Structure formats: structure tokens, C-alpha cells
Amino acid sequence: MFGVFAVLLVILPLEGPTRLMGRVTKDMPTVPDDFVPTVRLVLFTDTHNQNDHVADAIDTSYELFDNAEPYAGVDGFFCLGDFSSVGMEGDYARYAETLKEHVRPETKMITIHGNHEFKDDNYYEYFVRNFGYEPDTVTDINGFSCIAFSGERSTTEWTFTPKSLKWLSDSIKTAEKKDDGKAIFVFQHPHPWGTVYGSTVWGDPQLNPVLNGHNRVVDFSGHSHFPM
User: What is the pTM (predicted TM-score) of this model?
Assistant: First the structure.
């Protein structure tokens, strides 16, 4: 059995979230005494040009986990989008410079688009020029398939194209063919609709048919600014 330890850092303060009803669990999960993680991923999202928060999240993660027992270090950072506010190339450049200054060469760093990056028509060109990889990408980290899905803007900044959703579906199916029993991590900006707190207000129902039926997928999203 493999072990996974993932940390989600939500950067921005939250203002006036809508109260939604959900299931209440009295007992928190317990960690087995012999549990040893095999991967550590740190996530941040919706920083909206506040690159000092990005730097603080990265530096704090290294401080927390450099000497952690029984598993030290950070294997990967993922930004779930909206690192900008209006998607201008200067926002990309300043954010990329922050990553260069704070992320160590041995740590994977993957960023995806959010809807705020989609506000500028040149979002694809800005992304590739500043980050040096495709907005949709699959990265192997310690044997785990990590699928980062930016998608393409459709008629508005809120909707994905059918072509991009097919890419996500195909990537999940390809990861499942490994048949190694490991979790498959998917990262995108909006929540799948009706899945987590805030997702009935800020979720995207286009994602649900793509993710349904894949019981090894562990999905991470941002966008809503709601707490976990």
C-alpha cells in the first residue's frame, strides 16, 4: 500500500462565504503508526498578483518539511491558477521571477491557468514564454501521474472547450493504464460542481462527466476562495 501526504495552502483571506449544508463527520481520520509518505505535494491558489504570499508559502513549506520525519522534503509545488488578476504578461513575468527566486531546482513547480488569466486573449503565448512548458501537462512525481489541466477558454473565461476536456479525459485514461493502484492527481482551477464547500456557487459542471467513474483520481481545485 502506498502512502500520500498532500498539503493545501489557500493564500487569500476569505470574505463573506455563503453557508452551505454538508455532511458532518464526528471522528477525524487517524494515521496508522507505520504510515510513511511516498510523496509530498504543496498547493497554493488564487494569489492574484500577491507574489509575496507565493514566496511565503514556498519558503514556509521548505521550513516545515526539510527535516520532517519520517519523510523529509517537498516533491512538488502546484499553483491552481489566478496568479494574476487581469492576465497581463507583466503579471506572468513577476510571478515567474518569484518562483525562480524561491523554488529549488530539485523541486517540481507546475502552474495552471485560472479564469483571470483567460481575461487576456494571449494567455497561451504568455504562459509558454514565461514558464517554458505547456499549460496542459502530465508530470511524473515519485511514480504518481500528476495531471495539470489549464484547458482552453471557450466562449467566455468561465467555460472550457470540448477539445481541452477531451485532453483531460484521455490523460486520466492513460494514467489508469499503468494499473499500479496508485492515486492519480488532477489539478485544475474551478471545482467540479457539487463536490466541495463552495462548488455549488463557483463550481464548473463541465468537469463532472470527465471525472465521474475514475475512483483513483484525487482532484484539487481553487477558484472559489472558500475554506476547506
Answer: 0.86
